[in-house]
Amino acid sequence: MTPESSGDSVKQALRDGILVLTVDNPPVNALGASVRHELRAAIEAAGRDRAVDAILIVGAGRNFIGGADIREFGKLPQLPTLPDVCNAIEASRKPVFAAIHGAALGGGLEVALAAHYRIALGNAKLGLPEVTLGLLPGAGGTQRAPRLIGAKAALDLMLSGRHVGAKEALALGLVDKIGETVDVLAEGLAFAQALLAARAPARKTRDADGLADRTASRAAIEAARAETSKKSHGLFSPLKIVDAVQAALELPFDDGLRHERQLFLQCLDSPQRAGLIHAFLAEREVVKAPETRKAKPRTIASVGVVGGGTMGAGIAVAVLDAGLPVTMIERDEVALARGRAHVEKVYDGLIAKGRMTREAKEATLARWSGSTAYDALGPVDLVIEAVFEEMTVKHAVFAELDRVCKPGAVLATNTSYLDIDALAASISRPGDVVGLHFFSPANIMKLLEVVVPAQVSADVVATAFDLAKKLRKVPVRAGVCDGFIGNRVLAIYRAAADHMMEDGASPYQIDRAVREFAFPMGPFQVSDLAGGDIGWATRKRRAATRDPKARYVQIADRICERGWFGQKTGRGYYLYPDGARAGTADPEVEAIIDAERERAGITPRAFTDDEIIRRYMAAMINEGANVVHQGIALRPLDVDVTFLYGYGFPRHRGGPMKYADTVGLAKVLADIREFAQEDPVFWQPSPLIVDLVERGATLASLNQSA
Ligand code: 3H9
Fold first, then answer.
1. Which architecture characterizes domain 486-702 according to CATH?
2. Which residues line ligand 1 (CB under 6 A)?
3. Does domain 300-477 fall into CATH 3.40.50.720?
4. Which numbered atom of ligand 1 lies nearest the CA of 69?
């Protein structure tokens, strides 16, 4: 072997008898097939090489190793497996050291655990986050971690998926030392040399005694099992993690490894793994809108917010939390004071919960200023309009913005459904106008629809994506239409739920079925939470343009006419006695539904929960496909991310478009055609679904093409 030689992904260099293996596989040094192959070959060759006394594994770039290559999962496996590589590392007769900087996650930490000694730099981030991807640590992590740090701590790491810093890793016993500097190679070499000088042997983690107290270990496993059964909400991998740790306690090491492998493969095969990895990759893909590749964002150092209502105040908080100054505009002093109070209330809530200090609140609010004169917006770089959802009001605001804002200021509207093309065209600088559709509460909800009108310039869109990053939001690019991506699709599956309610399912059964699918709430609970008056106003607005042939369920109107708007009025679809947050079924609502069925001449029939979900999902998928077909969403994955971050779609199902592929598009189309026999106006198959089914293709096949 030459002293300095290089594979593609694992570079080798000999330093005073220490073979340095640098994993170099950008962007995160994932353990793809070539890394595994080269790492194992290098370890084995080093065992035979007399010039090598010890081996040091480090990562190139910003991380040690980010984990297994998650893009390989679901494809044909390639040898060697990662467990084989880890076993080869541990079996080395020459001491193996790992020097960790940045991320050592999943398989990355498992490589480090297979090494004989570990040092971490101050910026290290260690963890076994496989559970967040529907997996378990499958390269010996479930067997080595408990032996090294005990069953309780190992289960906590694996079931939470959390990352720990260097100090905690040292306290847990995951690493032996913390490096003082930021030079990982120098720290690793010094660490290795010191231990070699002390004649430290090749110490195997499999021999560590973290499980020696069998009673405590068993108790930790049973406690984790009980807690996980209660809390895992239908997730597959958490209980498998507990099973694997039990195997670590009960079986000899090699048998435990075999058991871990079987459990890992079961997780790998589960649709949950596919859904969760899709979600992970989609949320990283969604930020790559075409405009962000073409243009540089404008600088945003100050923001104006027009409107201090719930939405405006929430947006102001989101901006303040990002460290930017905010100028709030309201029509008079009373409204401005109310806007300021809305903002303060959020921070007071945090103080009450012990999550903010009074000093921090003061420092944050020092960046807030308010005015009743638009001229105060003269110097700001970006303005977000969040006034009443009425076109004439918005036009008036934009005319003022056009008058006072400096050239180059970005002018954003937070409208949920109004025509932004028309709004942009009404002022002298349509290229500066973009939609920023926040979701309520705007300081908490992660989703931000970046709505792209026809005349907007690319750098304004790039600025919106850049702002989203600063606000720690997940931006999704959407085209202009009524409701953009999310609310447009919502209107359709919400209508499907109303149809089922009128046809015989109770709102309570529908909500329960939807919750069992793993949404946090059903559609009628959501309506009660958001306030029934909002949907009522929208329905009235749309009444004139509604297709007279389209089915219209009036139950919601009957409920609203009684002033039952949901939680805020103490009743809606549910009763909320004495301000209760969880509603109870309301016999009077059931009587209203019965009366409406009679009025509409409908004989109620029973629905199974399965049929409820088939209809609910078919409606969501069909409109999601229409949104892609019409270019409102760039790709199916943009619809998925919208629903994961804005509408509570269960992450382990990956989003509605991913779910459609999982069920099979042909099956979804067959459902739509079956439902269309009763209501051909509502159930019109999306041309995109018809086309994909004819070609035997999936929605996922469109994710690459934008
Ligand atoms: C595992 O290890 C299983 C084993 O136990 C058993 C095996 C037998 N693979 O997040 P970023 C890509 S499961 C492939 O924006 P950051 C990512 O898609 C794994 N690709 O960077 C993106 O691509 P693109 C357990 C990956 O600096 C780019 O890297 N490990 C992987 O903000 C940059 O990503 C984990 O769960 C991967 N493993 O954060 C850790 N990871 O540029 C998952 C990332 O094309 N990863 N990419 O958009 C992370 O948490 C973060 O990426 C990390 C860096 C903290 C590492």
1. Orthogonal Bundle (1.10)
2. 27-28, 30, 63, 66-71, 82, 103, 105-107, 110, 129-130, 133, 135, 137-139, 141, 281, 284
3. yes
4. 9
- pLDDT one-digit tens code per residue, 56-81: 999 999 999 999 999 999 898 899 99
Question: Mean pLDDT lowest for which of 33-37, 526-530, 630-634?
Answer: 526-530
- Which one is catalytic: 4, 44, 90, 110? 110
Predicted local distance difference test score (pLDDT) of residue 1:
42
Alpha helices (runs of H) in 546-701, residue ranges in sequence order: 555-561, 587-599, 609-629, 636-646, 656-663, 665-676, 687-695
Q: Is the pLDDT of residue 656 over 50?
A: yes
**Domain boundaries, given as residue ranges, for the chain:** 4-268, 300-477, 486-702
Taking all residues of the chain, what is their mean pLDDT, rounded to a whole number?
Answer: 96
Site of tokens 């949920």: 416
Torsion, CA 22, CA 28, CA 32, CA 36, rounded to 10: 30
Q: Residues 381-399, buried b or exposed e (16+ Cβ, 10 A)?
A: bbbbbbbebeeeebeebbe
- Tell me which residue of 112, 147, 143, 114 sits closest to 127, measured CA to CA: 112
pTM for this entry: 0.95
**Cβ proximity of 417 and 451 under 8 Å:** no
From the alpha carbon of 129, which atom of ligand 1 is closest? 36
Decide whether 300-477 matches 486-702 in CATH topology: no
291 among known catalytic residues: no
| Beta-carbon-side half-sphere exposure of residue 564 (alpha carbons within 13 Å) | 19
What kind of fold does domain 4-268 have according to CATH?
Answer: 2-enoyl-CoA Hydratase; Chain A, domain 1 (3.90.226)
pLDDT score recorded for residue 537: 86
Please tell me the distance from the alpha carbon of residue 262 to that of residue 143, in angstroms, as a whole number: 13
Q: Tell me: the pLDDT tens digits for 143-169?
A: 999 999 999 999 999 999 999 999 999
User: Is the separation of the CB atoms in 242 and 224 below 8 Å?
Assistant: yes
- pLDDT at 5 (0 to 100): 55
Instruction: Provide CB contacts within 8 A for 525, sequence distance 6+.
Output: 511, 573, 574, 583
Distance between CA atoms of residues 39 and 44, nearest Å? 9
Nearest-angstrom CA–CA distance, 365 and 642? 31
Dist CA 89 CA 111 (whole Å): 8
d(CA 132, CA 163): 12
